[in-house]
Amino acid sequence: MIMMNSQTKTSGLDDLIFDNRFIRELPADPETVNNRRQVFSACYSRVLPTKVANPRLVAYSREVAELLDLTEEVCKSADFTQVFVGNSLLTGMDSYAICYGGHQFGNWAGQLGDGRAINLGEIINRKGERFTLQLKGAGSTPYSRNADGLAVLRSSVREFLCSEAMYHLGVPTTRALSLILTGEEVIRDMFYSGDPKPEPGAVVCRVAPSFTRFGSFQIFTARGEIDLLRKLVDYTIVTDFPHLGEPSLDVYLQWFEEVCRRTAEMIVHWQRVGFVHGVMNTDNMSILGLTIDYGPYGWLENYDPNWTPNTTDAADRRYRFGNQPQIAFWNLGQLANAIYPLIEQVEPLQQAINAYKDTFERGWQTMVAGKLGLNAYDPSIDNELNTELLILLQSVETDMTIFYRKLAILVMDVELGDEALMAPLMEAYYVPEQLTDEYKARLGNWLRLYIKRIQNSGIADAERIKTMNATNPKYVLRNYLAQLAIDKAEQGDFSMVNELLELLRHPYDEQPGKEEFALKRPDWARQRAGCSMLSCSS
Ligand code: AMP
Ligand code: MG
């Protein structure tokens, strides 16, 4: 049962200015009883967060607080915890869950919707920027289907830390303001193995200009609700793509092309930093080209394009690292199908979707050049250079992050022998026995080709190192680090969550004294649940 939330007045939080345009301008579900149902002819349903007994703040992001013009003092206040766990609504908040659908693992799944996300409202900050505040794990909604609307601490720590880590890496992403324990238990069967256990519940407050997904458009087309489709497209263009001008047939196509370009840019970043989303269903694709819905994601340790952390996808590996570019393209194809009724011509949609391939190809080349410290990618030389490198990285277990970072400190002397050249890279190897003479000779050859490539292009070494260190992070949210922080947090010790949050604010800096967080995955983490294997259960 949902209890009525009181309207709270608090100084600081009270200064937030709400302008809830989404619910003001788009059609509401007239039903306000919070039962699970198919919601037709509406973009959202009003719903209140469920109150919890004993909330406790685990962490907050000072940068997101600043975006919202909240002081750190306010973030530490009891009122902040009450508001961002969903126990009290501020004046101006008007909470709702959004209706959307999606293709899950390649199949149309019908209505999904915010099953455990509740939007509190949209704020306008002092700079005039608009942000939607959304609680994840604050109780059931009409879209909860057969689940409980809740989230556990482990998945909430992962979402909170990764959102902020990605932001500081320069990857487009939704943000996270806060992570709050509810003080209540949630039952989860982590690997769907018939072994349900109580776990601590938590709520993350996510922040983004909009949480609209590809699936938000798909649901209306699937139901033949074409006026709603048009309303949401027009709304999205006017609100989130205002530079495109008044909606029209031409503007629809420009908008779709821009979504294709933004999506391509996001995927290039994922491939650059070794991020595997894990569940690239169309309901998890942001219309703004933001990384959204951090579930069973993971970071590549040893470079392996076939790797996915998601055990739910183990059979097909649809969402493996190396497949992410193709999947994004497939998802854009589904979005094209969804907006087809507004365009009614295939050809211009086809042309627009080509923008994905062009942007991805160019972005990928620039990214590869940056990772190698080149000032430009020359396909006639670099296609071969990079292909050989990727073969080498896969042929023995090589930590991707460490390898690229250490490549910057290579001694740029082609006269050196294989082992001398390789010396700075040794930390990247997981299994020293794999480093056969044959491998060393092949890598040595590659390193000499690389040195010559740099020397021929006349790039000064300081310049090369600077480019590489700005492209190749030293610190990422390694899967085992997140798990160690979770283990501690589950014991009531939030220090490592906060330490990682701090560390990951400067992923490209050396940060003396923090090197232990840049080490490769220890052996114990190879097969441990949460480190290399995750499921959708969260
Ligand atoms: P995901 O693949 O995790 O993004 O989730 C797919 C759909 O399931 C979305 O509509 C979610 O809101 C919903 N969902 C996931 N977990 C829960 C939960 N614990 N309670 C209610 N809905 C959920
Ligand atoms: Mg989702």
Automatic annotation (TrEMBL):
Pfam families xrefs: SelO (PF02696)
Cytoplasm found in the keyword field: no
Reaction catalysis annotation: L-threonyl-[protein] + ATP = 3-O-(5'-adenylyl)-L-threonyl-[protein] + diphosphate; L-tyrosyl-[protein] + ATP = O-(5'-adenylyl)-L-tyrosyl-[protein] + diphosphate; L-tyrosyl-[protein] + UTP = O-(5'-uridylyl)-L-tyrosyl-[protein] + diphosphate; L-seryl-[protein] + ATP = 3-O-(5'-adenylyl)-L-seryl-[protein] + diphosphate
Keyword ATP-binding: yes
Cofactor (UniProt): Mg(2+); Mn(2+)
Binding site for Mg(2+): N284, D293
Entry annotation: catalytic residues: D283
Database matches in InterPro entries: SelO
Catalytic EC class: transferase
Molecular function GO terms recorded: AMPylase activity; ATP binding; magnesium ion binding; manganese ion binding
UniProt entry keywords in alphabetical sequence: ATP-binding, Magnesium, Manganese, Metal-binding, Nucleotide-binding, Nucleotidyltransferase, Transferase
EC number assigned by the record: 2.7.7.-, 2.7.7.108
Binding positions (ATP): G113, G115, R116, K136, D148, G149, R206, R213, D293
Biological role stated in the UniProt entry: Nucleotidyltransferase involved in the post-translational modification of proteins. It can catalyze the addition of adenosine monophosphate (AMP) or uridine monophosphate (UMP) to a protein, resulting in modifications known as AMPylation and UMPylation.
Family recorded in the similarity comment: Belongs to the SELO family.
Name under which the protein is recorded: Protein nucleotidyltransferase YdiU
Lineage: Bacteria, Pseudomonadati, Pseudomonadota, Gammaproteobacteria, Methylococcales
UniProt gene name: ydiU
